Amino acid sequence: MRLSLGPALPYTLPSRHFRIECCTLTQPLRINRKSIENKHPKKWERLLDPVDSDPFSYLSAASRPVKLADKWMDYQGIQNWEGMLDPLDDNLRGEILRYGGFVDAAYKSFDFDPSSSTYATCRFPKNTLLDRSGLPETGYRPTKNLRATSGVQLPRWIEKAPSWVATQSSWIGYVAVCQDKEEIARLGRRDVVIAYRGTATCLEWLENLRATLAHLPDADSDKSTARYAPMVESGFLSLYTSRPTVGPSLQEMVREEIHRLLESYGDEPLSLTITGHSLGAALAILTAYDIKTTFKRAPLVTVISFGGPRVGNRSFRQHLEKQGTKVLRIVNSDDLITKVPGFVIDGENDQKMNVAGLPSWLQKQVEQMQLVYADVGRELRLSSKDSPYMNGVNVARCHELKTYLHLVNGFVSSSCPFRATARRVLVNQSR
Question: Any idea where the Fungal lipase-type domain is (predicted)?
Fold first, then answer.
């Protein structure tokens, strides 16, 4: 059975630190208050931009990552992280934070300034991207810049609006390959990372709002009716498959680069790790699905997602599982983005699509509107309320990447949700 993603149809239209006695582990998180308050201007379009602190300052030479060679497949999810999430395995914590660093680099490399002539492009040359975004000496080398294009067709009057409003194609992330021999030995394989940032441009926001499910073009299904075919959120599919006026789609760029890398390194131990935050988390899942359906001999593909929205229906989840794609979703229970779009089905019977908490007449309407989703993969559930260093629950702050990394750094287990040595990450501030 071969599945493929085809082009989507166009859419019209502080520095204070406190000690809390709980658990005693290592690796404190240190955030400087002035850098949080002064580093970036307070613009509305940056509401969810997480680049206003350095969540990786705790990664010091004194706490170098341990060798994973013998168990690297376990940390990549070959056993679905069984027994590693509660309590959180400390080595897995380090890997999650390490991949979070690649996502942070995608944010820091993006030009958010709408008044800039280089708005929505990568700020740094490819060969210095990681160094200049605060990730020196990773052992990885970026090999491909990635761009996403919106399929939204704008009305003619939009020509009178500022150019940044109608930016249809923008830099969304990059591919990086581990090239350092010592790091390859530590990891037990050569690792390829695809890292995606979250929503940044106006048209990306519009695509996020296209919440109805769309059929994957040319996708086979085990069911005889279209109702049970794999479907994904329309806007995410559009960003992944739409082509700009000149140049390839994000899907085509990913396929081309993965084909090249498999040709170059396919004879050695290899892993593909796709990571992203928010919109980037959704695109990471679509990318993993596409790679596994396009390349029949693809190596182990793992998704590490932070604060991701729902992506597809139950059939889509089942196809992911049959492919062997491993997904670890990092979820903040106080983050509204992880609870949208649509509704999650309840029950194990595919023929009975009961939507949790809804009366039967409304369940039918939800199904007809193509808003019945399913969560995918294994979940590491955290909560902002468990951190003694966060002052209340703020909708935007709960979704920020730095909040997720703070919570991962501090989480111990469901019975001891925050460790004593995790440091204060956020302070009261006006935005």
Answer: 193-343
52 is catalytic: no
d(CA 347, CA 356): 9
Give per-residue pLDDT as tens, 99-136. Answer: 999 999 999 999 999 999 999 999 999 999 999 999 99
Is residue 383 annotated as a catalytic residue, yes or no? no
**Cα–Cα dist 42/56, whole Å:** 23
Instruction: Determine the number of helices (DSSP H) and then strands (DSSP E) in the chain.
Output: 13, 14
413-424 burial code (b ≥16 CB/10 A, e <16): eeeebbbbbbbb
**DSSP code of residue 423:** P
Q: How far is residue 39's CA from residue 54's CA, in Å, rounded to a whole number?
A: 11
List, for residues 10-30, the tens digit of each pLDDT value: 555 533 343 333 443 334 333
Selecting among 335, 384, 386, 406, the annotated active-site residue is 335
- Domain edges within the chain: 66-343+357-418
Edge to edge, what strands does the sheet with 372-373 contain? 354-355, 343-346, 372-373
Quickly count: other Cβ atoms within 10 Å of residue 157's Cβ. Answer: 7
Q: For residues 161 and 431, give the distance between their C-alpha atoms in angstroms, rounded to a whole number.
A: 26
Please name which of 109, 103, 151 lies closest in space to residue 126, comparing C-alpha atoms: 109
Length of the chain: 431
Q: How many other CB atoms are found less than 10 A from the CB of residue 290?
A: 21
The answer to whether residue 350 is catalytic is no
- The 3-state DSSP class for residue 270 equals strand
| Candidates 133, 238, 271, 278; catalytic one | 278
What residue has token string 């509660």? Answer: 86
- Specify the CATH number of the domain 66-343+357-418: 3.40.50.1820
